[in-house]
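> tool_call: predict_assembly(chains=two)
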Amino acid sequence: EVQLVQSGAEVKKPGESLKISCKGSGYSFTSYWIGWVRQMPGKGLEWMGIIYPGDSDTRYSPSFQGQVTISADKSISTAYLQWSSLKASDTAMYYCVRNAGGNSPIDYWGQGTLVTVSS
Amino acid sequence: DIQMTQSPSTLSASVGDRVTITCRASQSISSWLAWYQQKPGKAPKLLIYKASSLESGVPSRFSGSGSGTEFTLTISSLQPDDFATYYCQQYNSYLWTFGQGTKVEIK
């Protein structure tokens, strides 16, 4: 069974750093892209970027380029999303998603990680 | 970026109603469009891909159509489990974009 299991909820202060994780199982982790999707409170879905763990090829949405870093450790089948300096506006639910690449949809979603940034 | 515009933003309907949601792309995306359903507190779930292909396990009352820039999601007979928010998403390029969502409410 394909699963994407994300790390738990985080409460941080503005200016702090953070790295959240997404562990894939039940499939070949290096053969699928892992993406990240943001959902701010009461709002819609925003694609942030994707990584191919097989060779670490990474692409970002222009809206998030320079704001976050996406990485992966294929030895432990885990992808990461990190911030170096959080802002209150980063408060949101973050989902990791699986994608087969090319012209294919998102076929699996993680359960989401809620990040709250507040002083 | 390709912009995706859904309409309506909110839809009030009764059990048994036929419901149609529209999604328009700012430029042609061929048939590279997916529809997702999201219930409160849950991750979205894939319903339709490649504009009209039904994901395995999704009830046949859901259907999708369209190509180019105009797409529709139809629920033929709305069921209690279908009250949720629906999003379209284009994957014509790696610069994915989502529609703003359509909330289907109980009338």
